[in-house]
Write a structure and sequence with these properties.
There is one protein chain. With 706 residues, the protein is α+β, with helices and mostly antiparallel strands. It is built from 27 helices and 7 strands. It has helices at 49-68, 76-85, 88-103, 107-128, 131-142, 151-166, 173-203, 219-231, 244-253, 257-268, 280-296, 302-306, 315-346, 355-370, 374-377, 383-398, 484-501, 517-527, 534-540, 552-560, 566-585, 592-602, 619-622, 633-649, 657-668, 676-684, 691-697, and strands spanning 205-208, 238-241, 400-405, 416-422, 428-437, 447-452, 463-471. The strands form 2 sheets. Strands 3-4-5-7-6 form a 5-stranded mixed sheet, with helices on both faces. Strands 1-2 form a two-stranded antiparallel ribbon. Strand 4 and strand 5 form a beta hairpin.
Length: 706
C-alpha cells in the first residue's frame, strides 16, 4: 500500500518559476465537477508537470511565509490549521504525478520524474528545517494552553512536532544542510531503483514458441500468455511477462520444468543482471546514505530512526517477533517439502525440489492431501463477482453502498469509478477508483492510493481512493478468473480503501490510512478473512459457465486446506523482513550478494524457497523510505489482525453487528486521531495477544531450547 500525499510532501524545490503563462495548464486548475471536484485526468499531459510544479512551489512558499511572518503569537488556527490548509495546488498535482509514476510510466515521464525527485526532497526539507515555522510549532507543543484544545487538535500538534524533530528540525545549520543533501541524493536513487525495476519487468519475458510450451497451463493462463505476446507484437505463440501476476501462475501449473526454471530465473534476477538496470550499486549507496542520515539525526542505525515513529519502537522487538514465528514456519516448510519430494520420487523425477518446482509440486500435494485443485476453484472466482462480494461485505460491516458512475474522467480506459454512500443515511462518503489490469508502464503488484483525504476543517471534503492491481485480461468477452491468492490480495487492498472511505476526522493529516506503518496493514489484512466466509462464497463465488455457487463439498475442502502453504508464504515473507531489518541495522558497507547469502545461511533458509523480494528488486525498501526497516509491518499487523478476528469468532461470527460497530468506531473511522495502541485496546478491551497468530496459521509448537 502506498499513500500519495504525506504531511510534508506538498511541494517541491525552491527554484525560479518559469516566466511561462500557466493559466492554461490543466494541472493548476482546481478540481471541478461533482463530489467536491475530481481530477481532470482527460486533460493532463506529461509536459504539464514541470511548469505546474514550479508554479505550485511559489504558492506553497508564499503560504509558509505568511504563517511564519504572522506577527501574532502562534495559535492552533494561525499555525497548525494554516499548515493543514496550505499546499492544496501541489497536493492536487502530486496526486496525478504519483499516478503517472506508478501506472502510466513512459520514457517522457521518467525524465520528468528523474529531474523532479531531488527537487521534491529539497522542498520538503525547506519546510521541516524552517526555523521560524518550527519555533511556532514548538511553542504550541509546549504550551499549557494547548491542553485546552480538543484531543484531535492536540494529536495534530504532537504529529507536526514529532515529525519535524524526527526530520532534523533541531539540528544545527551545518547538519541540516547535510541531511538535506542526503535526502536529495536518496530521492534520485529511489527513482533510479524504481525505474530500473520497472524496465526489467517490462523488457524481459519467457517466449512460448510451440504448443508444447503451454503444457499444463489452464486456459485463462494460456490465453493471457497469447494476449501478452500480441500486445508486445512478438513473433511467438505466447509469452510470460516478468511480473508476479504472470510468473506465479506459470510456476504453479506449467509441466515444462525447463521453462519454469527460465521464468523463475528472470523473476528472481530482476535488478541483478549486471546490465544498465542493475540495482546493486544503487541500493548500496542508499544504505550508506541512510546510515549517515541516521547518525546525523542522533540514531545509532537507520533501523532505530525508522522505528522511532512506529508501534514497535525498538528493532529488537521486531526481530524477536519474526524469529519466534520463523522456526515454526521453517519446520512447516520442511514437512511440506518432504511430501512434495515423495511425489517427485514416485514419478521417477530423480531431482531434489528446487525453488522453480515448489509451487508446481505444492499444488500436487494440495490435490493429493485435500482433494483440492486450484483449477477446480478458479472457475468460481470471477473478478467482477468478487468485487461485488467486497461491496457486499463493506455493506454488512460498515453500511456502505457502491454505485458505478461514468460522469468523472479517468486516466486510462481500464479504470472505473464508484460512488460510495452510507446506505442508512444515503450520504455520499467518497469515490472508489478501480484499476485492475496489468499493462506496459504500470508497476507490478497491488496497492491503494488516496487521491484526496477526508476532512471537515471547512466543511465536508469527500475522500477519493483507488485500488490498483495487475490481473491479466486474457480473452475479450471472457470473465477474468483469478486464483484464491489473488482474490485474497483483492480483499486486502480493498481493506486499505475501506480504511480511507470510513475515515471520519477533522484534519487531513490525521485521516484514513495516515497511521503508523506497522499498524496500517492491520485493517487490510483483517478484511482478508471475509473472502472465505460462506456468505461471500455462496453469493459471489459463482461458476463462470453455470452460475452455480461453490458446492459445499468444495467449500469444506477449501476450509480444510486453508492453512496449506502458510509455511511457504511465511518463510518467503519473513526472510525478506529479516533481511530488511538486518540491512538497516548494519552500519558498514555491504556486498548485497554476500550479505543475502550469509544472512539466509545463518537463518537456515530452506533451499527450496527464495525471499519474496531479493535485495536488488526490493522496491518496498529501496523505492522510498516508507517500508525501509519496516517490512516486518506485515507480520506485526498480522498479530493484531489474528487477535482482532477472534473478537468476531468469540462473538456471533464474522458479521456480528456489535463487533463491526466497534471496529468502525475504534479502528476504521478514527485515522491517526488517537495513539494506535490505545485505539486497539478500545476495540478489543486489551492489547493484542500473539498466540492468536500461531493458532491462525496452525503452526507446530516448537519447544524453546534451554
Amino acid at each position: 500500500m502506498k499513500k500519495i500525499i504525506t504531511i510534508f510532501l506538498m511541494g517541491t524545490t525552491l527554484f525560479s518559476a518559469s516566466a511561462q503563462n500557466n493559466s492554461d495548464n490543466p494541472l493548476l486548475k482546481k478540481w471541478t465537477g461533482p463530489y467536491g471536484g475530481v481530477p481532470a485526468f482527460n486533460e493532463y499531459k506529461v509536459s504539464d508537470f514541470k511548469p505546474a510544479i514550479q508554479f505550485a512551489i511559489q504558492e506553497k512558499l508564499s503560504e509558509i511565509d505568511a504563517i511564519t511572518n504572522n506577527p501574532k503569537a502562534p495559535t492552533f488556527d494561525n499555525t497548525i490549521a494554516a499548515l493543514e490548509r496550505s499546499g492544496k495546488t501541489m497536493s492536487r498535482i502530486y496526486t496525478s504525478y504519483g499516478i503517472y509514476g506508478s501506472t502510466l510510466s513512459t520514457p517522457e515521464f521518467d525524465a520528468v520524474e528523474t529531474e523532479m525527485s531531488p527537487k521534491l526532497s529539497e522542498f520538503s526539507d525547506k519546510i521541516v528545517q524552517n526555523k521560524k515555522l518550527f519555533a511556532r510549532i514548538e511553542t504550541l507543543y509546549n504550551s499549557k494552553e494547548s491542553k485546552k484544545l480538543t484531543s484531535e487538535q492536540q494529536r495534530l500538534i504532537w504529529l507536526y512536532y514529532t515529525d519535524f524533530v524526527r526530520e532534523g528540525a533541531k539540528l544545527n545549520e551545518k547538519d541540516k544542510e547535510k541531511v538535506a543533501k542526503i535526502n536529495q541524493e536518496l530521492a534520485s536513487l529511489f527513482t533510479k531503483f524504481s525505474q530500473n525495476l520497472l524496465a526489467e519487468e517490462h523488457n524481459q519475458y519467457v517466449a512460448l514458441k510451440t504448443e508444447s510450451d503451454f503444457d499444463g497451463l489452464p486456459n485463462e493462463v494460456k490465453n493471457a500468455a497469447i494476449a501478452e505476446a500480441k500486445s508486445r507484437k512478438l513473433d511467438v505463440l505466447g509469452c510470460v511477462a516478468n511480473t508476479r501476476s504472470s510468473i506465479e501462475p506459470f510456476l504453479t501449473f506449467s509441466t515444462r520444468r525447463d521453462l519454469r526454471e527460465k521464468a523463475f530465473d528472470i523473476f528472481v534476477k530482476r535488478g541483478d543482471n549486471g546490465n544498465a538496470n542493475d540495482n546493486n550499486a544503487t541500493l548500496v549507496s542508499i544504505l550508506q546514505l541512510r546510515t549517515q542520515k541516521a547518525k546525523l539525526l542522533g540514531f545509532p542505525t537507520f533501523a532505530d530512526w525508522s522505528l522511532s515513529n512506529k508501534m514497535a519502537k525498538d528493532p529488537k522487538k521486531t526481530l524477536d517477533l519474526m524469529l519466534s514465528v520463523w522456526e515454526p514456519a521453517v519446520e512447516k516448510v520442511h514437512q511440506d517439502v518432504a511430501e512434495m519430494q515423495k511425489i517427485v520420487d514416485a514419478e521417477g523425477g530423480k531431482f531434489k525440489i528446487q525453488p522453480w518446482d515448489y509451487r508446481f509440486y505444492a499444488e500436487k500435494v494440495r490435490k493429493a492431501k485435500y482433494d483440492l485443485d486450484q483449477n477446480e476453484v478458479k472457475p468460481y472466482l470471477q473478478l467482477e463477482n468478487l468485487r461485488e462480494g467486497m461491496f457486499w461485505v463493506a455493506g454488512e460491516l460498515f453500511n456502505l453502498s457502491f454505485k458505478q458512475i461514468t460522469n468523472v474522467p479517468v486516466y486510462h480506459p481500464d479504470v472505473r469509478v464508484w460512488e460510495v454512500s452510507n446506505k442508512l443515511t444515503n450520504k455520499v462518503v467518497g469515490l472508489w477508483y478501480f484499476d485492475p489490469y496489468a499493462r506496459a508502464g504500470k508497476r507490478s503488484g497491488a496497492w491503494m492510493n488516496a487521491y484526496r483525504d477526508q476532512q471537515k476543517m471547512d466543511g465536508e471534503v469527500l475522500t477519493i481512493v483507488s485500488n490498483n492491481c495487475n490481473f491479466i485480461k486474457g480473452t475479450a468477452n471472457e470473465p477474468v478468473l483469478i486464483s484464491w491468492e489473488d482474490a485474497t490480495t483483492l480483499f486486502h487492498e480493498f481493506g486499505h480503501a475501506l480504511h480511507g472511505l470510513c475515515s471520519n476526522v477533522t484534519y487531513p493529516s490525521l485521516a484514513g490510512t495516515s497511521v503508523a506503518r506497522d499498524y496500517v496493514e492491520f485493517p487490510s489484512q483483517l478484511l482478508e478473512h471475509w473472502l472465505a466466509t460462506p456468505e461471500v462464497l455462496n453469493k459471489f463465488a459463482l461458476h463462470y459457465k453455470t452460475n452455480q455457487p461453490l458446492p459445499q463439498s468444495l467449500v469444506d475442502r477449501i476450509e480444510k486446506a486453508s492453512n496449506f502453504g502458510e509455511g511457504f508464504s511465511t518463510v518467503e515473507t519473513i526472510s525478506s523482513s529479516l533481511i530488511d531489518m538486518k540491512l538497516h541495522l548494519a552500519t558498514t558497507t555491504i556486498d548485497p550478494h554476500k550479505f543475502e547469502k550469509e544472512t539466509l545461511d545463518a537463518l537456515h533458509m530452506p533451499s527450496e524457497i527464495v525471499m519474496r523480494h531479493r535485495i536488488p528488486q526490493f522496491g518496498h525498501i529501496f523505492s522510498g523510505d516508507g517500508y525501509a526497516a519496516g517490512y516486518y509491518s506485515y507480520l506485526w499487523a498480522d498479530v493484531i489482525n489474528a487477535d482482532a478476528y477472534e473478537a468476531f469468532t468469540e462473538g456471533k461470527g464474522p458479521y456480528d453487528k456489535e463487533v463491526a460497530k466497534r471496529l468502525y468506531d475504534d479502528i476504521f473511522s478514527v485515522g491517526n486521531t488517537i495513539d494506535q495502541e490505545k485505539a486497539y485496546e478500545n476495540f478489543r478491551g486489551r492489547a493484542p495477544k500473539s498466540d492468536a497468530l500461531m493458532r491462525a496459521r496452525n503452526f507446530p509448537i516448537i519447544e524453546k531450547k534451554k
